[in-house]
Amino acid sequence: MIFKEIEEFSEIRYKARAYLCHLLDRNIPNNLPGVNVQSINDGFDKIAHEVDSFDAFYILDKNGIQLDNTISLDSKNISGKGINRSNKAYYYRCVREKRCVLTDPYPSSLTNRLCVTASMPICNDKKELLYIACVDIGLKELLAMISPSSVDGIFGKFTKLIYSVFSIALFAISLVLFVYGIKSFVLKSFNEINISEVFESTIVLTLALAIFDLVKAIFEAEVLGRPNHHQNGGSRTMVRFIGSIIIALAIESLMLVFKFAITDPSQILYAIYLIGGVGFLMIALSCYLFILIRSSVDRDY
Q: How many structural domains compose the chain?
């Protein structure tokens, strides 16, 4: 689910930065005379009582050296005094931009999980940089805080459960169609196989493959959260699904042509109507693919 979480973070990044920077700005004194480490720690204490999802709080001096041990509810994370963190993004970006910043997700050395860091420059009344106040929070906790409907929120987990149930149901249907499609070959000898049964089995197996392909796309995207490396992954799935349906209808219409030509030529007009419907679906699918390719080219430019 890491890719899904990072993708969701990119969507709520600005909202998350605004919220975390608001917490820091509201609770920590800044641009005032007499700003010191104790006043910043008091602000951290207020934030910790307001939101208990943070992993760690710590203060850097203007050169990026951590002044005290990390403040954390987990005693194993209380460390870091004197460490040079000037090469960290939350330090040099904050100093360079001279404002509160939020880093990209990175593996935390404290929790071994993905986290982000919000850092804010602390200045005196003369606008001289004194400290950098830093707050670490796990990526999952941030998503649950900012976007309750995210993949790790309650609604997100419920949605994953629903998609899982539907995926299992559709897979069961695909499996039933597959068994039905091959039983005529398994249970009969070669001489007993009817050509019409071959066409029927081909139709059933084509539908089974189309449903399985749809299940695979839904399960990977919505349950496993795997990224789609193609720009139009969802559209590709729909095109393949509709293409499989068109193939099944084309085979069925061909069967009807042969059947009515032999048994009842007066009914062959209905088979022609079905062939016309298949042709219309192919034209519609071609137009859709043309529009899809054009829109993709326009985005590249």
A: 2
Residues 9 and 130 in one domain: yes
Pick from 123, 146, 169: which residue ends a domain? 146
70 and 131, same domain (yes or no): yes
pLDDT in tens, the chain (301 residues): 567 778 788 888 999 999 999 999 999 999 999 899 999 999 999 999 888 889 999 999 999 999 999 998 888 888 889 999 999 999 999 999 999 999 999 998 888 889 999 999 999 988 999 999 999 999 988 888 887 655 555 666 778 888 889 989 999 999 998 988 888 767 666 666 676 677 778 778 888 888 888 888 888 777 776 655 444 555 666 777 788 788 878 877 887 887 777 777 888 888 888 889 889 988 988 888 888 778 766 555 4
Final residue in a domain of this structure, among 129, 146, 163 = 146
Is residue 64 within 8 Å of 85, Cβ to Cβ?
Answer: yes
Interatomic CA distance for residues 118 and 181, integer angstroms: 58
* Single pTM value for the model: 0.57
Tokens of 18: 């605004």
Q: Rounded CA gap, 34 and 62, in Å? A: 16
> How many whole angstroms separate alpha carbon 61 and alpha carbon 163?
49
Instruction: State the residue range of the domain holding 158.
Output: 154-300
